[in-house]
């Protein structure tokens, strides 16, 4: 288990990361919290109460924990949140398109109705935009940049695209979209956390706005 704390040895100046073994005194593993979605994963409460730590428990350099965490989190955000959200949205759009080709109502395929087409078209456009942004952010990391502004944009855009796509999917599938016989209702429940974990949409928007106020148009001049 990785735990963070201010490091007294560093004069309380920095945050340090520590590895804490299961079974350490003062470290308690609590209940597995039931959740709206992602029910195949666990979300467990951990309590740290005066856990004795020595230098062997230190992860990385003393007082450098925040930098280490931020560097790691940026990449995790891009891959495990941004790319995963886009992948899920793409899968859900494929299911929507298949259903729109097959489902017949009023003598037509529902995919022939323009209001259904709008939901398909908006989903496709938003997914492609999110993918391009993701690739641009990954390219910036490959060039040695920290990519933090683009990663924040990917996080917000991919998470919110996924939310809109799964919502439209429930609509396109009609009553079947609400039933547990199909995976759509599960995708809908699982999507909600993407706007919350790894920094909420509000926090990432705050970071983007702060950067815009500081850097000006350099922030969105990303074509090179
Ligand atoms: C399934 C799941 C998995 C998770 N996985 C991880 C993980 O692997 N690692 C990890 O570290 N955390 C993880 N988390 C925690 C998650 O990152 C936090 O729940 C999330 O960052 C929001 O923090 P909070 O719950 O304390 O909400 P709060 O910070 O209390 O926020 C509540 C509301 O206030 C808003 N808000 C707060 N501050 C501001 C502000 N300054 N300006 C505007 N609005 C604001 C928030 O956007 C939100 O809408 C996980 C949570 C869940 C449910």
Summarize the structure.
The chain is an alpha+beta fold and 224 residues long.
**Annotated CATH topology of the largest domain:** Butyryl-CoA Dehydrogenase, subunit A, domain 3
Mean pLDDT: 93
Q: What's the domain count?
A: 2
What amount of the residues lies in strands? 5-15%
CATH architecture descriptor text of the largest domain: Up-down Bundle
**Global structural class:** alpha+beta
First and last CA, distance: 41 Å
Query: Order of SSEs, N→C?
Result: EEEEEHEEHHHHH
Q: Total number of helical segments?
A: 6
Bound small molecules, by name, code or SMILES, are: flavin-adenine dinucleotide
Helix content: 40-55%
| Overall body shape | flat
Gyration radius, to the nearest Å? Answer: 22 Å
Q: What do these coordinates show?
A:
- By secondary structure, this protein is an alpha+beta fold.
- It folds into two domains: 2-59, Butyryl-CoA Dehydrogenase, subunit A, domain 2, CATH 2.40.110; 66-219, Butyryl-CoA Dehydrogenase, subunit A, domain 3.
- Helices cover 54% and strands 12% of the residues.
- The chain contains six helices and seven strands.
- The protein has helices at residues 65-102, 114-142, 148-173, 175-178, 184-191, 201-215; strands spanning 2-6, 15-19, 27-32, 44-48, 58-59, 104-105, 108-109.
- The strands form three sheets. A three-stranded antiparallel β-sheet has the order 1-2-5, with helices on one face.
- α1 packs parallel to α3 and α3 packs across α6.
- Residues 35, 38, 43, 193, 196-200, 202-203, 206 line the site of flavin-adenine dinucleotide (FAD).
């Amino acid at each position: 288990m990785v735990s963070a704390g201010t490091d007294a040895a560093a004069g309380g100046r920095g945050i340090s990361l520590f590895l804490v073994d299961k079974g350490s005194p003062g470290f308690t593993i609590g209940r597995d919290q039931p959740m709206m979605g992602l029910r195949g994963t666990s979300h467990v409460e951990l309590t740290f109460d005066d856990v004795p730590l020595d230098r062997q428990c230190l992860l990385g350099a003393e007082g450098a924990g925040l930098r280490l965490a931020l560097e790691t989190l940026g990449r995790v955000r891009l891959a495990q949140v941004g790319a995963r959200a886009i992948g899920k949205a793409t899968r859900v759009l494929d299911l929507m398109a298949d259903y729109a080709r097959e489902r017949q109502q009023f003598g037509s395929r529902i995919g022939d109705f323009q209001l259904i087409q709008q939901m398909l078209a908006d989903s496709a456009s938003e997914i492609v935009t999110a993918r391009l942004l993701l690739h641009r952010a990954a390219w910036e990391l490959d060039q040695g940049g920290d990519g933090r502004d683009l990663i924040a944009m990917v996080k917000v855009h991919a998470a919110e695209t996924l939310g809109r796509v799964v919502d439209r999917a429930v609509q396109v599938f009609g009553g079947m979209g609400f039933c547990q016989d199909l995976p759509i209702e599960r995708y809908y429940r699982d999507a909600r956390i993407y706007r919350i974990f790894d920094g909420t949409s509000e926090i990432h928007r705050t970071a983007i706005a702060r950067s815009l106020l500081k850097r000006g148009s350099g922030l969105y001049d990303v074509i090179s």
